[in-house]
Amino acid sequence: MWVTGTILMNRFSLAILLILLVLPRLVIADRDSIEIFSYSSFTNNDPTPAVANLLRQKWELLREQTISAHPELTAKMTKIHIVARNSALPDPDQLSSYWQQTPVLEILSGGTVQTPSGNTMTTNIYLGDLKGLLKKPTVSVKLIVTAEEYQNYRDLHSVVTLYAIAMDTRKNHPTDRGITQYLADAKSLLEDLLLRDSADANDSLRDLRAAISRELFALQSSYSH
Amino acid sequence: MSKLPILILIVSIMIRSSQADDEIRIMIPAFRGGTLGKNVATVLNLKVWRTLRLPPKDLPYRAGGKVIWGTQTLQEDSHLEAENVAENNGCQMILWGDVLQFGDGILVESFLSIPLYEDLRQDHSEEWSVKVTCDSANVELKISLPTRRYEFAPIVLDKDIVDLYSTPSAIKLFETKESTVPFGVLGDSYTAIQHDGDYTFVKPTGGKPGWVYLPRLSGEIAIVDFAGGLLRLYRGDYAGAIDLLVKVSESESGAGTRLKIDSLLLQALALAKLGGNPTQKIDVAIRLNPYLQVCYKFKIQALAGQYLVTQDSPDNQRSIAKQIDQTLESSAYLFSENDEWFAAARRISDCMLKHSH
Fold first, then answer.
1. Is the pTM value of this prediction over 0.95?
2. B320 in Cβ contact with B355 (< 8 Å)
């Protein structure tokens, strides 16, 4: 009886502890981090630090440029930061709960492999509940690591990040007019990306284009009705 | 953030009209990436300089133009740092960047930052103002550049360019354009004097003048013509600005959608300053991306300007007043509810509708 009581108390304490840990996350209005987990490699060199460094630099520039074009988005943009995790991505069945419990906008992971056409990098960007009208919560893109593909690599992350920020803003501040401007900037970049890569544009990018167009159309329609 | 101004060693050129009372300056510091970065920046420096032109006598030029070359790179790759350096050196804009390796190739990243600060200019050619009297009160609609921070498409360097420009003595001086044997190298301090095709005649400080050959870099048009177009716009050379910016908006490669849109909007601004009707240019920009707030600001600004110049035609005024009202209505979802510019535009529109009935 005493043992059962202790177990019950422990379960009760655990539940309280979980509520205390999770509740603040649920109450947090805006998600503010972009997390990068380890990238696998076919060589002994870990590409993760280089990927994280590049993405951090690109994020800072995207932030500066977005604020200049849309000063009204400054407050939201200045809160977001990049976090490099020196660990493997949580198991697929844990990913969703990890995303729920952290204030993360997107979770990046991937790897490099050697192919006949050159070294190829795959990037998976998990958006959790911020997938909006995307068919899947993960955007996956494979790019050959060449100087010619650098811009696609750079712009792809900008597009997905702007989309994630727009979806997060829509969730917490549905009447914020900045949502359209994040999506509009993402649209310009994505159209260029698809144009450069029209021959083998993958399904993820096409899905992203359709989602951005539909989100923008829905925002326009909701205002006029 | 840099507190020290970049050391300026070189003034490439200065062109001033007789009426000039201002001077517009663009700074181009060495690009990060060692000797190759420095040489690529030198080439871009001379190419931007070539976009300057002597002012035709029949145009009301106000400002001279100057390209300033810095031998040091920025301390960090950020627009904020670039803007501080530009301001510390009295420049209205700064073209900066780096050379980096990705995969087994080499590419150039370049950025343009246009700081907003109180400089010594008496006139601000890049600002577009429309003033309307509404119920005895003056209401002003004012816009300027669509944005002040640009990132250009990277330039992938061919192997022969990388090989050629990786040494300090890469940019060689020749007696004539036809010479095949150089007599010296350009160095860090020089004044550009004349350009002809792919060649530029320069005078090294304390040295003998000569011709240098400037290679064509893929995608350079977007960078050079956009920066050159902005420089001309700031100088009040509106027709000249349109000539260069058209090349960017009609470029088949090297210019992304957003750069094309902004090129069109800047052409519209220049056209309005020349007394023309810029709405067609803005409509093309809107077709490229119908969700950008700034395009509708330019559209409404242009229509308000057109309303004022058609005062002798009540029918035209009525039609324009309706267009402004419709544009405001259809684009309202892109503006914050407390947007001051939109509120002023709404006030002007209501006033125009009332007076044109």
1. no
2. no
